[in-house]
Amino acid sequence: MAAGHDPATTGINTRLTHSGNNPRDFHGFVNPPVVHASTVLFPDAQTMKDRAQKYTYGTRGTPTSDALCAAVDALEGSAGTIAVPSGLAAVTVPLLSFLSAGDHALFVDTIYNPTRRFADSMLARLGVEVEYYRPDAGAQIADLVRPNTKVIFTETPGSNTFEMQDIPAIVKVARDSGIITMLDNTWATPVFYKPLEHGVDISIHASTKYPAGHSDVLLGTVSANAGCWKKLWDGYLTLGACAAPDDAYQVLRGLRTMGVRLDRHQASALEIAGALENHPQVAEVLHPALESHPGHAIWKRDFRGASGIFSIVLQGGGEREAHAFLDALSIFGLGYSWGGFESLAVHVDLSDRTVSARDYAGPVIRLQIGLEDVADLMADIERGLAAAKDA
């Protein structure tokens, strides 16, 4: 951010617009250069031996990746940020950096499924004990803490079913026991929730989603507080999981409009979720910003807003009804990602749940509300609900 702007006092959209680069550093150009780099040359042998210059090799950072990471630091209030090739890499790099054989790690049971797959396969194979906890555990997570518990990995709201967690209560237990807390904050982004402000040590984002915003980039960021930054940075360098410069540039460009896009996503999603609460073909709407949601009080206490993704439970039926709903849609695309400009829908598979498994009245459909007109999206949903009813 240019001199004269203090990220701590400016508004979120000002930070999104100006953080990460100073045009005066690049001859006045508004956007930083896209630096494609592997080899970096040194002026002499001693400088090369001491690595006594800002950039030494492409995997250790370039002006492009630094611009993105500086912008994220300004949003998160973090001591440092790394940019990695995907949202899943943003999950795996900190876990590999902070866990060792013989350690015990707690994961919320409503976690993003690829995170669970990594924990159950690779972490288990490397000798890490993996255990899942209920999203409503709060301070009672202390009952699961062992002497070898090193990490609590959480995500709020929960993936696909949007359960809220009492993060400050979990953080207090973790701090008292010397445990590192990590939080996947992809749903809210730093615009609506800042994990480090609530005591979390490491904040994780699939920047593929809202930061990029256009369904064409894979990238993740991981931001750490001062106590965890060096270990995260060392793990990142050891793994060599650096983001490509063109992708970093695209995400930085996406950040500039993320605030205004999120305002639209939020408003449209809330309007649609509210309308569906009273629909005869909808048994339940899983959106934490609705007063009917069991975790609404926590959301209202801790969050500044809500993004554009939530789920609905159809009134009875199973896979046949879910497929009929999806196949009748013409505006909503059928796709697994979210956070882009277009609306998406998917039939949620909850078969991986263990300690938080529950029965729903019908199939769960996750809706990503894009930037289209609400009236058109509602008409599309009505087509889907009518098809499900007739299935």
Q: Can you describe this structure?
A:
It catalyses: L,L-cystathionine + H2O = L-homocysteine + pyruvate + NH4(+). This is Cystathionine beta-lyase. Residues 10-22 have a biased composition (Polar residues). It is an enzyme of class 4 (lyase). Residues 1-28 are annotated as: Disordered. The chain has 391 residues and is an alpha/beta fold. The chain has 2 domains: 12-254, 3-Layer(aba) Sandwich (Aspartate Aminotransferase, domain 2), CATH 3.40.640; 258-390, Aspartate Aminotransferase, domain 1. Helix content is 38%, strand content 15%. The chain contains 12 helices and 12 strands. It has helices spanning 12-18, 45-50, 63-76, 87-98, 113-125, 167-177, 189-192, 226-239, 245-277, 296-302, 319-327, 374-390, and strands at 80-84, 104-108, 129-133, 149-155, 180-184, 202-206, 220-224, 282-286, 309-314, 333-334, 344-347, 364-368. The strands form 2 sheets. It has a 7-stranded mixed β-sheet, with helices on both faces. Helix 7 (189-192) links the parallel strand 5 and strand 6 (202-206). It is globular, with a radius of gyration of 22 Å. The mean pLDDT is 95.
Briefly summarize what is shown.
By secondary structure, the chain is of the alpha/beta class.
List the main descriptive attributes of the protein structure presented here.
Aspartate Aminotransferase, domain 2; seven-stranded mixed sheet; 391 residues; Aspartate Aminotransferase, domain 1; globular; alpha/beta; five-stranded mixed sheet
